[in-house]
Design goal:
Pfam families: GRIP (PF01465). It comes from Helicoverpa armigera (Cotton bollworm). This is GRIP domain-containing protein. The chain is mostly helical and about 90 residues long. The protein has one domain. Helices cover about 80% and strands about 0% of the residues. The chain has four helices and no strands. α1 crosses α2 and α2 packs antiparallel against α3.
Length: about 90
């Protein structure tokens, strides 16, 4: 395989794993029986912030993850979007 193809596979795999962990954390916050170790949540939050700052293609997806992990209210999310478009 060529290097660009391998890089693309790595990026897609990283996004898939990120989305899977995000779904698991959201489910645990909704009261489902899935328990997530606080250390895992912290590492995921760290990754979400890192990719929010470095991945311009999907910054909104990473922002959504950060907002949900931190438990922002709908009003807080609205204020964040308002501030980002100003």
């Amino acid at each position: 395989m060529h290097a660009p193809h391998l890089i693309k596979i790595k990026i897609l795999t990283r996004r898939y794993l990120f989305q899977a962990m995000y779904r698991r954390i959201v489910q645990s916050q909704k009261g489902n029986k899935t328990n997530v170790d606080p250390e895992v949540t912290l590492q995921f939050l760290k990754s979400a912030i890192y990719y929010f700052l470095t991945d311009p293609e999907n910054h909104q997806g990473h922002l959504n993850a950060i907002e949900n992990i931190l438990g922002f209210t709908d009003a807080e999310k609205k204020n964040i979007r308002k501030a980002r478009t100003s």
